[in-house]
């Protein structure tokens, strides 16, 4: 088990760099401590948050077609999942592969050690014979290291619209890492939230219950508790926006007044003007043509688009050329 707690030095350094930037930013990867993990599970169950339901529909209804290519190779392979989370969606694929007596090793990759520990426990209960090798790391670093590379074919999963959590330049960089981390014939299954009615998209990040707000505010709580800061969460408001041209939904924490925040671990104070914002998260929505273009940039071709009945979400299968 390669799980470990968030590195204090890295967390402190990233916070320092982000709050010294113009405009101010905080990395969304730090949403995911134990409390943040639980909040995100709540978000996925919200009526406004359609993404999880739609991807479940795709995987439950089309998992046999999705896995046809890798099973047809008739040889042991690596199933690598970038951003494994709780593994609930992936278990649909794992269950079918197990039923078909397919030989493979599952490599769940996630930045959150607590998530990986819980996933490993649940897999041991549900799939006791499954070969599992959890890896706590970022997407890019895990692709650089390729700890799973052993000459076997690879099916890499990047589900849940995780690629959308990066701007286009960063997404292209990750696709380039996928290019380097795969060989000819390898398969990649990526989840994409598709462009649609802007109000439907915005509602998904601005739920009436305020869970997404709490998810963002938890980042300030983490800085307070782990870095000895004095953020007053009540003086910040969570503000999501959506641009239908770029397809980018962005989240901000906006200071409601002029204030100074001190972070003891950094021995530094940060001034906020009234209504100055901290950029926390991006969730990009894609068109099918944009997805095809991304594939070509990485040396892949689109094998098939697997979509839900309303065309809200697509799990897209790429093959390395």
Helix tally equals: 10
Order of helices and strands: HEHHEHEHEEHEHEHHEEEEEHEE
- Based on Cα principal axes, name the global outline: globular
Overall CATH class of the domain at 50-194 and 286-320: Alpha Beta
What gyration radius follows from the Cα positions, in whole Å? 20 Å
Structural class call reads: alpha/beta
Main sheet properties = 8 strands, mixed
Total E-strand runs: 14
| Estimated share of beta-strand residues | 25-35%
Say what the CATH topology of the domain at 50-194 and 286-320 is: Rossmann fold
Corresponding CATH superfamily of the domain at 50-194 and 286-320: Vaccinia Virus protein VP39
Keywords: Methyltransferase, Transferase
GO molecular function: methyltransferase activity
Domain Histidine-specific methyltransferase SAM-dependent: 11-318
Pfam families: Methyltransf_33
Can you describe what's shown?
The chain is an alpha/beta fold and about 325 residues long. It has a domain at about 50-195 and about 285-320: 3-Layer(aba) Sandwich (Rossmann fold), CATH 3.40.50.150. It contains ten helices and 14 strands. The strands form three sheets. Strands 2, 3, 4, 5, 6, 7, 13 and 14 form an eight-stranded mixed β-sheet that branches. A four-stranded mixed β-sheet has the order 1-12-9-8. The relative contact order is 0.17.
């Amino acid at each position: 088990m390669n799980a470990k707690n968030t590195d204090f030095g890295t967390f402190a350094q990233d916070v320092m760099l982000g709050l010294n930037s113009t405009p101010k930013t905080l990395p969304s990867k730090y949403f995911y401590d134990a409390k943040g993990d639980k909040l995100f599970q709540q978000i996925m169950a919200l009526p406004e948050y359609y993404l999880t339901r739609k991807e479940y529909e795709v995987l439950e209804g089309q998992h046999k077609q999705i896995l046809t290519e890798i099973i047809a190779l008739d040889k042991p392979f690596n199933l690598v999942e970038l951003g494994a989370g709780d593994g609930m969606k992936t278990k649909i694929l794992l269950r079918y592969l197990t039923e078909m007596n397919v030989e493979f090793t599952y490599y769940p990759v996630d930045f959150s050690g607590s998530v990986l520990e819980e996933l490993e426990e649940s897999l041991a209960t549900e799939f006791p014979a499954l070969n599992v090798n959890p890896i706590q790391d970022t997407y890019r670093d895990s692709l650089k290291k390729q700890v799973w590379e052993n000459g076997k074919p690879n099916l890499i999963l990047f589900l849940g619209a995780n690629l959308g959590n990066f701007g286009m330049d960063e997404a292209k960089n990750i696709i380039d890492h996928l290019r380097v981390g795969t060989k000819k014939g390898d398969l990649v299954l990526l989840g994409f939230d598709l462009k649609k009615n802007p109000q439907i998209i915005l509602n998904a990040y601005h739920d009436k219950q305020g869970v997404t707000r709490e998810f963002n505010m938890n980042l300030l709580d983490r800085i307070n508790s782990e870095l000895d800061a004095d953020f007053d969460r009540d003086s910040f408001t969570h503000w999501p926006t959506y641009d239908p041209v770029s397809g980018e939904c962005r989240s901000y924490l906006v200071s409601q007044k002029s204030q100074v925040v001190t972070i003891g671990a950094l021995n530094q104070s940060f001034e906020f003007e009234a209504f100055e914002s901290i950029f926390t998260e991006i969730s990009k929505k894609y068109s099918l043509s944009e997805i095809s273009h991304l594939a070509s940039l990485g040396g892949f071709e689109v094998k098939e688009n697997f979509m839900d009945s309303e065309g809200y979400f697509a799990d897209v299968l790429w093959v390395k050329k």
